[in-house]
TrEMBL record, chains A, B:
Matches recorded under PROSITE patterns: HTH_MERR_2
Molecular-function annotations in GO: DNA binding; DNA-binding transcription factor activity
Chain coiled-coil ranges: 87-114
Keyword line: Coiled coil, DNA-binding, Transcription, Transcription regulation
Name this protein carries in UniProt: Transcriptional regulator, MerR family
Superkingdom classification of source: Bacteria
Keyword Cytoplasm: no
Lineage: Bacteria, Pseudomonadati, Pseudomonadota, Alphaproteobacteria, Rhodobacterales
Keyword match Nucleotidyltransferase: no
InterPro entries, alphabetized: DNA-bd_dom_put_sf, MerR-type_HTH_dom, MerR_fam, Tscrpt_reg_MerR_DNA-bd
Domain HTH merR-type per the UniProt entry, residue ranges: 5-72
Length: 133, 133
DNA sequence: CGTTACGTTTACGTGCGCGTCAACTTTGCT
DNA sequence: AGCAAAGTTGACGCGCACGTAAACGTAACG
């Protein structure tokens, strides 16, 4: 088997974060490393969660928002009430992401337009320059 | 013509931001409202910029990053050096946005999978409940 | 003329997401 | 036994993006 657990340094190297960040996420209840004596050991579950955390951050979600969503990915043992509550949260999140995707596509389109305009401008300047030489 | 300029309150209502935010953006050189006496008047240009600012924020860009990019949308009078510099910045930004889009699509896919799994679990619970009645 | 409404500057306060010591165990060499 | 490496828990600090309160200007209205 590939290493079952990672110590804090291995975890940091694997995800390019600092120890401080991992401890901070644990304090915020985003990660739950097990303890070997006093030291933290990060499980496969923690690695999956951290991946989602970092992705969520890139999308502009707060750690608190992310914390709530992480439950969706680990609702193996939830009771029905908790499960459906989480499911509703996930629906909202999905809607938010799809809205973000639509807006992102629009923004990309606009930026491309602007860049085409800028490229033309640059071409004109280059032309002027060469004819003036 | 529709109102040429907006005062601060109209601007706030139009974009759902606070006066503090608009003044803050001006201090950070993201907006350049003209002055009528001491009061700010927001032009069409300011409205276009604010729209881009708010969008940029939703995508997780910092105000400083956004400030640099706003130049691309107003590089009417730039010299070639400045122009091509801005163009390069825009290329980077475009790449970042397209990467973000790809990752977003992946995340949406995964979330949908998880939700399907959750839906099934919920269905099972519902079934058990009805058979137990 | 007062006061009410709207805007202004100045400046300190706040929440988030960590960075950065300091002081202390624990572990593994040698 | 000694000592360095790696990890730990506080606790304070910091940059960002504003919130918020204080004190002031000014234009309009009754």
């Amino acid at each position: 088997m590939t290493t079952e657990t990672l110590n804090i340094r291995e975890m940091c190297d694997a995800f390019d974060v600092t120890p401080r960040t991992l401890r901070f996420y644990e304090a915020k209840e985003l990660l739950f490393p097990i303890r070997e004596g006093q030291k933290r050991l990060f499980t496969k579950r923690d690695r999956a969660r951290l991946k989602l955390i970092l992705r969520g951050k890139r999308f502009g979600f707060s750690l608190e928002e992310i914390r709530q969503l992480l439950d969706l990915y680990h609702m193996n043992d939830g009771q029905e009430a908790q499960l459906s509550k989480t499911y509703v949260l996930a629906e909202r999140h999905l809607a938010a992401m799809e809205a973000q995707k639509a807006e992102l596509e629009e923004a990309i389109g606009e930026l491309k337009e602007q860049m085409a305009w800028g490229a033309e401008k640059l071409a004109q300047l280059a032309k002027k320059k060469s004819s003036a030489a």
